[in-house]
Structure formats: C-alpha cells, structure tokens
Amino acid sequence: MQLERKRFAVAVALVIGMLAPALAPALAPALARAVEASGPNRFDTVVIDAGHGGDDVGARGAEGLLEKDLVLDIAHRLAKRFGGNGLQVVLTRRDDIFVPLEERTSIANDARADLFISIHANASHDTKVRGIETFFLSLAASDDHAGQVARRENQAFRIGDTPAKRSDDALVAIIGDLITKEHMEESNEFARLAQLELAGDPQVARGVKQAPFVVLEGVQMPAALVEIGFLTNRLDEQSLRGAKERDRIVSALVRAALEFGRRYDARRGVGSR
Ligand SMILES: [Zn+2]
Q: Cα of 227 to ligand 1 centre, how many Å?
C-alpha cells in the first residue's frame, strides 16, 4: 500500500513536471490576472508604443518628415498629459532606438498595463489618400488596405513572416488564443472611442479597422494601433509638422483613454477615481 502510494506520487510529479514547462508561458499571464483579480484592478496604467526607431525609420514624408521622429514626439506629449491625469505611463521606447516588436509586447505585459496604444503614421502609393485610421488586432484583415498597413508595420518583426507563429503545442496555442480574444471587445471599444475623438473632421475619418499587427499580438490587455495621418499626403504631412495638430491628436487620445478608463472601472465594479 505504502509503495503504491509512493509510485502514484512519483507518477503525478512526473506528469506535472512534463506539463509545467509547456503550460508555464501560457498560464503565467492568466495567473497574474487571477492574482490581480483578487484586488480591484483599476484603470491606472497605460503603455505608449512609439512605432519604429533607430534604423527602422518607418514611413517617410515627401518633405522629409520621418514616422519614427513624429510618433516619438507624440508619445512624449501623450505621456506628459496622461501623467498629469494621474495615470502611470510606460513607454516602449524613449529615444531614437530600435526596439523589436516582441520586446515591446513584453514591456507592456510586464507592466501589467490596462491599455496599450501603439502610435504610427501611414503611407500610401496614392498621395491623395489622407486621414486617421485606428486598428485593433484580428487574425484576418478587415479589407485589402488594412492588410497592407499591417504588412508594412510588421516589417520590423524579424523573427518570422507569419504573425500567427506560436508555440507548436496545440494546447498552449488554444490558451493563447483565448487570452487574446478576451481583450478583443475592449480593444474594439477603445479603437472606436479614439477614432471618434481623433477624426473630428469627417473628411479625414477613415474608420476603425482590423488587421494582424505583430505588435498587438500577445499583448495581455486591451490594445489599439493608431495611424495618425498619411506622411505621403502633403496636407497631412504639413499639419503633422506643427505642434497644433500634434496637441490636437494628443488631446483626443487623452479624452478617449479617460472615457475608456471610466467604462473599464465601471465594468469591474471599481469606483471612479
Ligand atoms: Zn509605422
């Protein structure tokens, strides 16, 4: 009897030992959230991701404005305003350096933030195209243009071609999928609020779209990517050079994030700040 029990214990230990390494990466975020759920999870931390950086300049304006410089300036302005509103802010890059997309995701997850905002500027072969687009993650692009934007923004992802590349372990892949989908609705909600606040001029409102962005994949929180204008359009580039348009964009994103935060807290039964 004693021996049987010992054998059983050894077998259980072996099975746990075999499963643990495979499950750990997928379960760690879920565990982190379970711990968080034991206390009130207030909307208080935002990750701001300035796209590109370093050798990766991103889109280039006809007059020479570079996406990497523009979005870094917007990120700093936004961080200052969020800080002024009592929010904690984490920047995925503070300077003109290249940060791999998967590292940006890790920074956001380590911060256990409540919202991830990735800031980019658009480009098109058609120089007449202008305006603001907001994206949230999905495995399928909502239209051809959305797919092209994702392909361009994913170029910095140097590990593999397919954004859907995940663990070979089927179970881990399924858990990973569920965790991402859990935030889909809230990501959509923030994307809509942002689009509403940003695109006051219906001439420049291009809407909310979905596409497989690597930088949004694996982010364990509501996340959206904002394309603040087309650098390939002269009018957009001109206005994006000025502080007035930059501050307008920042104010719009602050309003959207604060409204999102109010709803986020209300859903979780957390009183207003
Ligand atoms: Zn970009």
A: 8
Ligand 1 centre distance from Cα of residue 111 (Å): 23
pLDDT digits (tens, 9 = 90+) for 245-255: 999 999 999 99
CA of 120 to the centre of ligand 1 (A): 4
Phi and psi dihedrals of 107, rounded to 5?
A: -60, -45
Provide the whole-model pTM. 0.77
Distance, CA of 261 to CA of 271 (rounded, Å): 11
CA 144, chain centre distance (Å): 21
Q: How far is CA 184 from CA 49, 139, 174, 188, 229, in A?
A: 19, 11, 15, 6, 24
Percentage, residues of the chain above pLDDT 70: 72
Helix (H) / strand (E) element for 8: namely: helix 2-37
CA 100 to chain centre: 14
Centre of ligand 1 from the C-alpha of residue 219, in Å: 18
Residue tagged 């999928």 (tokens): 177
Residue for token pair 């364990």: 220
CA distances from 237 to 71, 78, 242, 244 (A): 13, 19, 9, 13
All domains of the chain in start order, with CATH = 45-265 (3.40.630.40)
118 Cα to the center of ligand 1, angstroms: 9
pLDDT on residue 168: 41
